[in-house]
């Protein structure tokens, strides 16, 4: 899913002040998967834990959390340094896009499925994501940025993901989302002077939703041992771990002013998030990435530089750009391969995967 | 479904767009039970469904479903997985530098 930001000068919005206002067009992708396979999921082996988790989701612990209270300090968007403003807005837009896209995916799985256990789960998760998206949307509106939901009347192609890929990617995405939010929250608890936006105060309880969603995918993966134990799937899990971690590294480095204002060193923060995510993922993944291996940081740096070069080559265009893009692409591929081939650490996965948020 | 030809069909649908503080979401539901498969394309007719802030808009519309050819469907099934990374929060902006 992409978010396109277009600037629309204020005539239509406010003719008197001529204030520039931006509209972000949400452009989500639509997904399909093997819905028959989802219908065949049988939660019997993990029924007890499943029912507990569904009861927790049904009770909706964060129902009243997403309200703007007196804790929501005013944000000085006008006086904000432009580079920081751009990166903070990008952070909010990409978070909103993620929540929105999760909502679209979960709702589709709920609607197309016939398995009552699965449908109930996806219904609650879609509810949470839409609520998060609404809350972030409000924060963006304060910065005079509106979202355009007019995408439905544009032609939409449906992309296909195999169910297991959805499990691996969304499990990791939810758990890493939890780790990112709680790490920022704990950091700002100690350094409130770096809290550049009030939304961070909401992260502590907020990320428990992400944590719970991750728990649901952990249980889903437990319904079929092959998903995490077959040799091929172990290679896929390894691929997803490396891909998710390295993409996060590259993306975080694209927001230097944002992290600087938060008083966060990107490399240290990312390592901390990888550490927490790896510890949590021991609940279900039989392998983990050795992020303390010296090759890890080196590989991430190489990948980031190569992807930066690729991005510049893309902007440059022409034959020179195409050649530069090819060589940078090859270097990215090699860097990724070197990350992927770092020997992994093995875990003994517990019979009962359930965890509580503890960071 | 043709091997390389696409077929079009129309379907009535319900469009729901919520632009509220409590929930930001948008969904399309086909009212005739039509099912969308990998590679199919859906176009909802009419003007963009714009919900002003604080409102939910629910409208009945017509949609054209362009069915993917057999080849396209296979291709979408084979290659879709490569795009799965877009489900992760931090991978949405495609540019490495902002």
TrEMBL record, chain A:
<protein>
    <recommendedName>
        <fullName>Aerobic magnesium-protoporphyrin IX monomethyl ester [oxidative] cyclase</fullName>
        <ecNumber>1.14.13.81</ecNumber>
    </recommendedName>
</protein>
<comment type="pathway">
    <text>Porphyrin-containing compound metabolism; chlorophyll biosynthesis.</text>
</comment>
<keyword id="KW-0602">Photosynthesis</keyword>
<keyword id="KW-0479">Metal-binding</keyword>
<keyword id="KW-0077">Bacteriochlorophyll biosynthesis</keyword>
<dbReference type="InterPro" id="IPR012348">
    <property type="entry name" value="RNR-like"/>
</dbReference>
<comment type="similarity">
    <text>Belongs to the AcsF family.</text>
</comment>
<dbReference type="GO" id="GO:0005506">
    <property type="term" value="F:iron ion binding"/>
</dbReference>
<dbReference type="GO" id="GO:0036070">
    <property type="term" value="P:light-independent bacteriochlorophyll biosynthetic process"/>
</dbReference>
<dbReference type="InterPro" id="IPR009078">
    <property type="entry name" value="Ferritin-like_SF"/>
</dbReference>
<keyword id="KW-0408">Iron</keyword>
<dbReference type="InterPro" id="IPR003251">
    <property type="entry name" value="Rr_diiron-bd_dom"/>
</dbReference>
<comment type="function">
    <text>Catalyzes the formation of the isocyclic ring in chlorophyll biosynthesis. Mediates the cyclase reaction, which results in the formation of divinylprotochlorophyllide (Pchlide) characteristic of all chlorophylls from magnesium-protoporphyrin IX 13-monomethyl ester (MgPMME).</text>
</comment>
<keyword id="KW-0149">Chlorophyll biosynthesis</keyword>
<comment type="pathway">
    <text>Porphyrin-containing compound metabolism; bacteriochlorophyll biosynthesis (light-independent).</text>
</comment>
<feature type="domain" description="Rubrerythrin diiron-binding">
    <location>
        <begin position="90"/>
        <end position="220"/>
    </location>
</feature>
<dbReference type="GO" id="GO:0048529">
    <property type="term" value="F:magnesium-protoporphyrin IX monomethyl ester (oxidative) cyclase activity"/>
</dbReference>
<keyword id="KW-0560">Oxidoreductase</keyword>
<dbReference type="GO" id="GO:0015979">
    <property type="term" value="P:photosynthesis"/>
</dbReference>
<dbReference type="Pfam" id="PF02915">
    <property type="entry name" value="Rubrerythrin"/>
</dbReference>
<dbReference type="InterPro" id="IPR008434">
    <property type="entry name" value="AcsF"/>
</dbReference>
<keyword id="KW-0521">NADP</keyword>
Automatic annotation (TrEMBL), chain B:
<protein>
    <submittedName>
        <fullName>Uncharacterized protein</fullName>
    </submittedName>
</protein>
């Amino acid at each position: 899913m992409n978010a396109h930001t277009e600037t629309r000068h204020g005539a239509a919005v406010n003719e008197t002040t001529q204030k520039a206002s931006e509209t972000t067009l949400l452009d989500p992708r639509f997904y399909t998967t093997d819905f028959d396979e989802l219908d065949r999921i049988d939660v019997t082996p993990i029924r007890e834990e499943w029912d507990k988790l569904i009861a927790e989701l049904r009770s909706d612990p964060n129902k009243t959390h997403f309200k703007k209270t007196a804790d929501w300090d005013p944000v000085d968007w006008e006086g904000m340094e432009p580079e920081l403003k751009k990166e903070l807005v990008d952070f909010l837009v990409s978070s909103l896009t993620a929540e929105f896209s999760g909502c679209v995916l979960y709702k589709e799985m709920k609607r197309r499925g016939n398995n009552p256990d699965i449908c109930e789960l996806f219904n609650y998760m879609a509810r949470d994501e839409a609520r998060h998206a609404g809350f972030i949307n409000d924060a963006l509106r304060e910065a005079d940025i509106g979202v355009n939901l007019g995408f439905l009347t544009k032609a939409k192609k449906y992309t296909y993901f195999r169910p297991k890929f959805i499990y691996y990617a969304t499990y990791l995405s939810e758990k890493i989302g939890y780790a990112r939010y709680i790490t920022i929250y704990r950091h700002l608890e100690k350094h409130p002077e770096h809290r550049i936006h009030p939304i961070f105060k909401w992260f502590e309880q907020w990320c428990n939703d992400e944590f719970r969603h991750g728990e649901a995918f952990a249980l889903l993966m437990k319904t079929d041992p092959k998903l995490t134990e077959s040799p091929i799937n172990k290679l896929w899990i390894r691929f997803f771990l490396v891909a998710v971690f390295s993409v996060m590294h590259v993306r975080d480095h694209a927001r230097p002013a944002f992290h600087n204002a938060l008083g966060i060193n990107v490399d240290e923060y990312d390592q901390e998030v990888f550490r927490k995510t790896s510890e949590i993922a021991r609940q279900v993944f039989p392998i983990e990435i050795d992020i303390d291996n010296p090759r890890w940081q080196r590989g991430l740096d190489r990948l980031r530089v190569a992807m930066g070069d690729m991005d510049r080559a893309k902007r440059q265009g022409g034959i020179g750009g195409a050649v530069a893009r090819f060589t940078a692409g090859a270097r990215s591929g090699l860097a990724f391969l070197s990350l992927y081939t770092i020997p992994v650490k093995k875990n003994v996965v517990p019979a009962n995967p359930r965890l509580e948020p503890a960071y | 479904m043709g091997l390389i030809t696409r077929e079009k069909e129309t379907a009535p649908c319900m469009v729901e767009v919520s632009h509220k503080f409590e929930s930001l979401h948008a969904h399309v539901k086909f009212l005739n039970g039509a099912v969308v498969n990998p590679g199919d394309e859906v176009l909802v007719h009419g003007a963009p469904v714009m919900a002003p802030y604080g409102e939910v808009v629910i409208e009945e519309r017509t949609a054209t479903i362009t069915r993917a050819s057999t080849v396209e469907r296979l291709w979408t099934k084979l290659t879709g997985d490569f795009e799965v990374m877009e489900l992760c929060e931090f991978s949405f902006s495609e540019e490495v530098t902002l």
